[in-house]
């Protein structure tokens, strides 16, 4: 159950020959309407891939007919030639589908700096359009076709009152979204205009994908797209739609965390007692990006000193000497000093909960991250070779 | 040749029993004068260890008689009890040396969050004072006594015209100074007042230790101390002293980089063509802190796309699509697109040179970092156990 679960969407995932392995590498998702409302958020990295530059233009008017996604190459820092490949991809899909190229989004993922072969992509798009279907299998093929180092496809379905949301995601490395995120496509048959979709998408991603910081490295190709077909004939109120969309995004974010490259722990960093939510996010992120802390968790070592050393680099207002730190239920630091013995903390479960109480206010936020492992280093030491 | 090379300094390094291994763990360095001018810079981490809180007060008046340094425990986040241990350490040294405790600096390094044993430290200080000597062996013992995961002592001597500078340093992890740095003691027999020493020290550290960012993790205990005995009777001009001091600091910074935990590459990130020096530092640091880039270098993989993805997160003014990247002499990226083939780049030497030309101005800066290796993860995954 994925992007084809809501009514009005067809999908396909094929092996176009972009990946040398012969694995699925190209997906097409089409919104059959009656509405073709769409919204998207993009990476805030200033180094943006060609498909991002293209898709930002396409999404601007809130009308999206289809989206083409490929793995096997990011088409980033590939110059004019790379942009032409993206354009040609959209044109090929538009011609085959009888829509305007200006309504076709393109997403790419893979190695930065290599040219994609425009002919391979064009033939792949035609082949995928011929296999479009609205069944589960087609949706799952699409979810598989966008995988890179992901070990499994990520999909979600959330059901509303007479309408539903379906989604798929990829992302295993370069996983530290800022205002936007990994490759995610979310469909709905709710009947909502583009501006509502845009608000709902920004609200949902702000507290889900934007709180996931697996390895501190922001991608050049991140994009989350929301497509609405209106095929259910139901127009839910914005609040309940946003709530369901947030649920779908959170579910996908947790799946991304759980499949992060080489990770052996899913770390939940909960910051409480901050003056503002932004302060809580900053403090949590400082811990999520601290390699020494992340390596300690890999070693099942409840080294709370590294938590405090990390948050000492944040600018949020709090007194480091009043902070409490609790790891998997054991308060190991109280008022900036040692509390319960470290050896009471059991870090063998995959999920590690770190609670940081700042005693500076009432705001809170949770950041999701992963540990720093041998396998992370291994997977990322020879990705391009 | 180390801190005892300049005239007027005695040193000792002993095994006080702080480390369970029985290795050297306590050093004392005494300035015998005639001058007792001193200056120090401290970590800008808001989470500061007790010895930092103490030493900031001691250094404020520019008079420093002695410095006590211990490894085997950071005395950080150890509350009032920890501060009392630092105070007791300074008092013990002051009494034994016949000086004021308010003129005795204290530095500690090791695990955060564990209490040091005040009695062990006091006895250690007395024992070290009894062994003070001005010969090379005593200076080398002191340099060895501050080591933690360092594999070798780091020392330097720079000779001026009738005066000299000697130095020692430790630091292998949590190595990302901000305005200050690791544990470093530098001595000189030049006759210079404290305010001159302070200016010279800030100027030297700004372009040396502050440009070293091995693992992005800022320490709670960093301190660089400069002590001047005036024993040479020579008062060099400030510019030439600053130049020699900078040379000594750069030499020690390179030794720290070369011995960074688990590292297999010393990476020199040279940023040119920035609008300001601060912009060049920001861009260089964004690359130095990118785990994907650092893992690629470990794998001898010239993955320049990760360099561009990293600098795209910087706020410095430049156009990412105009940037050139050269790795070990091979320009792999030109104007934001592929240039020479990756396989022309040989990354097997320990030193990796990454040149980033922003084409946005005339300013430049160089940041030193290391790769992200299996050994880094291994060393840091069980440090406290």
From TrEMBL, chains A, B:
InterPro entries named among the record's database cross-references: Arg_biosynth_ArgJ, ArgJ-like_dom_sf, ArgJ_beta_C
One Gene Ontology term from the biological process aspect of the record: L-arginine biosynthetic process
GO CC annotation: cytoplasm
Binding site residues for substrate: 148, 170, 181, 261, 380, 385
Site (Involved in the stabilization of negative charge on the oxyanion by the formation of the oxyanion hole): residue numbering on this chain: 109-110
One Gene Ontology term of the molecular function aspect: L-glutamate N-acetyltransferase activity, acting on acetyl-L-ornithine as donor
UniProt name for this protein: Arginine biosynthesis bifunctional protein ArgJ
Gene: argJ
